[in-house]
Amino acid sequence: MENLLLLRQRNFIILVFRKPTGNTGLKMNSICLYIFWNLHEPEEGKFDFSGNKDVASFCRLAQKHGMYIIIRPGPYVCAEWEMGGLPWWLLKKKDIRLREQDPYFMERTRIFMNEVGKQLADMQLSEGGNIIMVQVENEYGAYGIDKPYISAIRDIVKEAGFSNVPLFQCDWNSNFENNALDDLLWTINFGTGANMEEQFRRLTELRPETPLMCSEFWSGWFDHWGAKHETRSTTELVEGMKEMLDKNISFSLYMTHGGTSFGHWAGANFPNFSPTCTSYDYDAPISESGLVTPKYYEVRELLSQYLPQGTELPEMPAPLPVISIPDITFQEIAFVFENLPEPKESETIQPMEFFDQGWGSILYRTTLAASDVQQHIKITEAHDWAQVFIDGERIGVLNRLKGEASLVLPPVREGAILDILVEAMGRMNFGKGIYDRKGITEKVEIINKEGTTELKNWKVYSIPVEYSFAENQEYRKAKVRKNQSAWYRATFILNETGDTFLDMRNWKKGMVYVNGYNLGRFWEIGPQQTLYLPGCWLRKGENEIIVLDLDSPSNPVIQGIKEPILDMQRGHGAYKHRKPNESLDLSGEVPVYTGRFKPGNGWQKVIFKKAHETRYFCLEALNSYSNDEFAAIAELKLLDKNGQRLSRQHWKVIYADSEEADEANNIASNVFDLQESTIWHTAWSGNKDPFPHQIIIDLGEDKTVTGFEYLPRMEADKAGMIKDYKIYIKLIPFNL
Questions:
Q1: CB atoms < 10 A from the CB of 300, how many?
Q2: Would you say 196 and 247 are in contact if contact means Cβ atoms under 8 Å apart?
Q3: Is 22 helix (H, G, I), strand (E, B) or coil?
Q4: How many other C-beta atoms lie within 10 A of the C-beta of residue 345?
Q5: Rounded to an integer, what distance in angstroms lies between the CA atom of residue 631 and that of residue 712?
Q6: Where are the alpha helices (DSSP H) in 52-98?
Q7: pTM for this structure?
Q8: How far is 656 from 582, CA to CA, in rounded Å?
Q9: Nearest-angstrom CA–CA distance, 206 and 36
Q10: C-alpha torsion angle, residues 255, 519, 573, 9 (rounded to 10)
Q11: DSSP code of 14?
């Protein structure tokens, strides 16, 4: 298996090299390996551990080159991977309870884990293999509190054969106690710049003699479509690693080697639907394509200072060849509407899973009654990118990222054909969002002066993502049709092979297949404008390329370039939460609470003197401990009448006076994205807005609130640590 290439298999100390050399030049000794349930059981009861999914061969290859393995089999793994690794077909059961002791979920989990055991249990260190640790579930504290469930998963992992190595669970320092089991090792996840003493303070209080480990030290971050490319400080990465080395704390770099979410495997964040880009470059020391970065050299220099006496870092592996590919012009086209498969029929709207479809696009078709007056079409809910056509002409697009749900319809004739083509992007991989059914999940309505009518009697066409489906369309020479979905096919000749990056700037939205391999999604909004094409998927001589563009290209031409484009947005950047000339007017408003936050890191809880009914919550920051003009918040949570945390699933930021979105993704919705390492930070590049700073959150419905919890940024002695503040709450919107 010298050319094993896992599909962006999420290992974060080191990723497997296509031509392994036995080292990364960093003297690291272990690989953390997620096992993706949905990758290995794409259909219920049909397991696949062959080819690029052969995890046993991967582990043996690592052992051959002197590396240990830590496996993380889930069943849930997050990883910005489709549905967090859970298989889509679980959602066919309408009352399924995921990550709970639902009988069906637990039965399928046990079956899957036993299959993993068949592959890997005999590779534990005690059996002569190289597996040294196994994880139980993944960051469950960010999902809920359910020790009996975690205990049941632990038992399933043991029953699968993993009983001769340490079992561990990972969480954040703020929530690891919620589900911590006495017989498991506890590890903490955090990112660069974190206050190390605070991260391990509570753990060392509870277990003074325990070995300490940061099981995910986030060296970078992942990208979302429409937002700026994420980067993290090299200085803070190296300083954090040095502090852990000096304090004898084990750590794994998440990521050492960036990766790629090939095919349909990229997930989406929660609670606001934010699909993850195809590139998982992660600003890692080793790039997506295996090339070293300036960050790598800094890490290498640090680690060279901590080698055993008499040893040296190995030589760096030689870089893989990189090539360019001249313009490829596409002339063969297969239009989607001319190549529809046989339909299924349904009286009412049903999600994609109801039609036994896991991924791809789905077309819903029905007819309309005649109307010569203005009316609206309302879709509840379109997951995730919907195009609406009448008699083959596109009249609009609804984008879930923007919360769009309705369009104005033109006058229509009796029997006009309504088509709604919905592309499913990655299912949410975090929090309660894993219940993310695709297609249209509820209903479609026509709204006019006479009332509201739900449309029924649908023909439904499934358009999967498999190459075999794209390959077997009826291609013909044709010209591009504006706003018409189509597959485009061409061939190109190579005299040599090597890694390359396909430049997708001429194209709108879709997927690319080369020699049968699905390279993943592209989308003109960026920030990613190229797709990584591994050289091992190319061949000398003739190569085939197929592009599915769900819109239409400006020019049907692609070329391969030698460097990726990962930071180019096109008009749909990180959405700021303040409209032009909009300003909050709090004159006449009376705060329900005025207070001062404590200095330092960690969660703080504030209890009001009485309960309040509210829908709109406003925090106004008046000044900061660092005497600057900045405010920053990592997370906000509100408390209900029983003092419990309210669900944030339907929260929306409707106003923030200032946000940094040019040099970083420090937008206001980060305060409830369930990620403690991401923050809302007021603008620090360009014009800096003065205090006071305000953020307003719409809770989505009326709630009883008795207080709130506030988490400042996790780094010590950083700008934006809020000092004095006021809280305003209302049942009606604030005056903007």
A1: 17
A2: yes
A3: coil
A4: 8
A5: 9
A6: 55-64
A7: 0.93
A8: 10
A9: 32
A10: -20
A11: -
**What angle in degrees, to the nearest 10, is found between the helix axes of 103-120 and 147-159?**
40
For 208, 638, 643, the CA distances from 473, given in Å and listed in that order, are 64, 52, 58
Q: How far apart are CA 212 and CA 207, in angstroms?
A: 10
Q: What are the tokens at 122? A: 């005999």
Contact status, residue 734 vs residue 618, Cβ threshold 8 Å: yes
Block means of pLDDT (10 residues each) for the chain, 736 residues, are 31 32 66 96 98 96 94 97 98 97 98 98 96 97 96 98 97 96 97 94 96 95 94 96 94 94 96 94 96 95 90 88 98 98 98 98 97 94 98 97 93 97 97 96 95 97 97 97 98 98 98 98 97 98 98 98 96 75 95 97 96 98 95 97 93 95 91 93 90 97 97 90 98 96
A 10 A CB-CB count for 54 gives: 17
Backbone angles phi, psi at 105, to 5 degrees: -60, -45
* Residue 242 backbone class (left: φ over 0; alpha: ψ -120 to 50; beta: rest): alpha
- Identify whether the C-beta of residue 159 lies closer than 8 Å to the C-beta of residue 127: no
**How far apart are the C-alpha atoms of 272 and 510, rounded to whole Å?**
22
- The token pair at 731 is 């049942």
Non-local CB neighbours of 646 within 8 Å, separated by 6+ positions: 637, 638, 639, 640, 699, 703, 705
> What's the distance, CA 128 to chain centroid?
36
The 3-state DSSP composition of the chain as helix, strand, coil percent (nearest 5) reads 20, 35, 45
Q: How far apart are CA 320 and CA 499, in angstroms?
A: 7
Residues written for the chain: 736
Q: How many CB atoms lie within 10 A of CB 269?
A: 23
Q: Which residues pair with 198 in a beta bridge?
A: none
- Measured from the Cβ of residue 376, the count of other Cβ atoms closer than 10 Å reads 14
Strand (E) or helix (H) holding 376: strand 375-383
Tell how strand 451-454 and strand 439-448 pair up: antiparallel
List, in sequence order, every residue forming a beta bridge with 513; answer none if it has no partner.
518, 546
Question: 3-class SS at 353?
Answer: helix
Enumerate the active-site residues. Answer: 139, 216
CB contact at 8 A, 631 and 654: no
Q: Check if the beta carbon of residue 112 is closer than 8 Å to that of residue 41.
A: yes
Angle of helix 294-303 versus helix 234-246 axis, rounded to 10: 20
Amino acid at 313: L
**Cα 234 to the chain's mean position, in Å?**
23
Give the Cα separation of 437 and 391 in Å (integer).
28
The dihedral region occupied by 362, where left means phi > 0, alpha psi between -120 and 50, and beta the remainder, is beta
Residue 240 has which token pair? 């954090």
Partners of 387 in beta bridges: 397, 421
Q: Interior CA angle at 62 toward 56 and 64, to 5°? A: 105
CB 269, CB 428: distance < 8 Å: yes
Structure tokens, 377 = 């079409």
Q: Taken in order 714, 717, 720, 724, is the CA torsion positive or negative?
A: positive
Q: Which H or E run includes 113?
A: helix 103-120
User: Phi then psi for 143, rounded to 5 degrees?
Assistant: -110, -45
Distance (Å, whole) CA 3 – CA 1: 5
Beta-bridge partner residues of 189: 216
- Take residue 562 and report the two structure tokens written for it: 């030698």
In angstroms, the Cα distances linking 433 to 438, 603, 660 are 12, 24, 26
First to last CA, the chain: 62
Amino acid at position 557, single letter? V
